[in-house]
């Protein structure tokens, strides 16, 4: 069997190889076949117009909000998630955290030569599922193929465009002394799930990622009349990284009470076994919110009204500026500095 035509150029024989080949990325007939047989039918099941290099969009009533992110997670599938849904939820959540209504996405795929087409199909199916859940549309895209060994299966990039809602969170620079800090659910699940799957740690049951969209939780806050000062999904670097960002932007000291932070037994067990701090482990469907003290309990009730966030908690408070930007009160009652994550204890998690 040859993967080359008479001219010596690589040519895909999908029926024989069942894998991505270099010609799939060359922009000709093979590329069109890949798109028409494996991409468009899954992302455009209703016969919507195929991707263009650029999309013409209608005018928005509010200010446009743009976000872009790349996803290189390994493995491509892990308990609770996969690279496809992660690429959609990650960008949608970034728009939500900035106070926008997500509307449109572009999708760029870098595929590795040799990737099974069945794996590509499964990932694209998960992208389509996530797009429907988030009520957004993919309106433009691009596909490239790189030589074997250059992309670890596939890399995805999504760019999202949304419409700023009014009022929107003014941002962490507006934090005030006494403001409450809330977390939307148990922390550390995504990083532990990816690590366990990658290293085949064989925990029973296996830890599951919190990979998901935050639309329902954000809508619940706004429906309850909550006006957050700041919102931030706690992805790479976890809760600790967000707190340090907020402390720097606000010039305040932030205190987090370890005893109030929701942590699942599986995350706590794996973290203790590996010497990791759950506060620094990545999440993909968990966020922090800072609200005025008079709205704290109301905001907590709103979050807990959403099934996925029933373990939301008030975990900290904004203090006057001190020597240390972020302080953690340990279970013993002792307060000590919470160090900013230095590097990534769990690489390739998103």
Count of alpha/pi helices: 9
Q: At the third CATH level, what is the topology name of the largest domain? A: Phosphoribosyl-aminoimidazole Synthetase, Chain A, domain 2
Give the C-alpha Rg.
22 Å
Overall CATH class of the largest domain: Alpha Beta
Sheet with the most strands: spatial strand order? 8-10-7-11-9-12-13
The SSE string, one letter per element, is HHEEEHEHEEEHHEHEHEHEEE
Strand elements, count: 13
Q: Report mean pLDDT, rounded to a whole number.
A: 92
The backbone outline, from C-alpha atoms, is: globular
Word description of this protein:
The chain is built from nine helices and 13 strands. It has helices spanning 14-17, 29-43, 83-97, 117-134, 189-199, 215-223, 238-250, 265-274, 296-304, and strands at 64-71, 77-78, 81-82, 100-112, 137-146, 154-164, 180-183, 230-233, 253-257, 287-291, 313-319, 326-329, 335-337. The protein has two domains: 14-164, 60s Ribosomal Protein L30, Chain: A; 172-337, PurM-like C-terminal domain (Phosphoribosyl-aminoimidazole Synthetase, Chain A, domain 2), CATH 3.90.650.10. The chain has 350 residues and is of the alpha+beta class. Strand 12 and strand 13 (335-337) form a beta hairpin. Residues 1-7 have low confidence and may be disordered. The relative contact order is 0.15.
